[in-house]
Amino acid sequence: MKEKKLISVILYLYNNENSILDFLFQITKQADLLFEQFEVIIVNDCSTDDSVKKIKSAEFLKSFQVSIIQMSFHQGVELSMNAGLDLSTGDFVYEFDSVVVDFDINLIESSYRKILEGYDIVTVSPKENDKISSKLFYKTYNFFSKSNYKLRTDRFRILSRRAINRAFSISATIPYRKAMYINSGLKIFNIEFEKIKSTKLYGEKQYLRNKTAIDALIIYTNLAFRLSVSISLLLLLSTLSIIIYTVFIYFGEDKPIEGWTTIMLLVSGSFSGLFLLIAFIIKYLSLILELVFKKKSYIQENIEKI
Asked: 0.90 exceeded by the pTM?
């Protein structure tokens, strides 16, 4: 028997005309086998190819409830998926950040069965991550994070409505959903899989990824605090070394222009550290300003039903 829960499937779309129909066919076929009611929300992040045109002309989608959110301009996966979450109405929500299907499609059912066991978030992740930059980011994040759960690359996740409500209750905007979820205090389970084929991963522009990574490290970890402390300790050591150097010069035979070397080292070292600390403070204040005062951080053009 099909499950009676209402399910939302949110998909991020950006220039995927070569793979979007195959992805939607597999996802909707599996969802139709499992659930009596489900909606598909496609968030088009201003694609410049024929992705949307192909979706609208696909006959197999006509029998399903499919909505397309048109973003006003390219805003990246995080803001776009936030728009999809706001529109979703399902008791459980699947999030697909990309159209990569290098996993067994039956994992869609496995993740749903697992969340029924009492978890609020179930992620599906490859055992190995091929990208060096991603490995470095996740290792850095997990080292400085206080969460009991580890952040890692995943292909999709399923969330309970409680998890989504908890995330939005913590912050009016969600700058990085994955980090927000593991810091929500709810039960999380991760399902690992072996990749079944190699598929190119398409995503948002690199500068948006870098910005999201930096924001996540500052908001959800104590990396900036530790760096500030480290800089302060370096300045302290520099000051002590200058004192030792001053004493050595004072009792030595060779004397340069009195006070010049010591003053220059002290001033340059102090100001360099001060500027770095100010940079961290400014970054913190800008993020706090965005999180506190911005109710909607994305801009969408319209919503279409197909």
From this structure: no
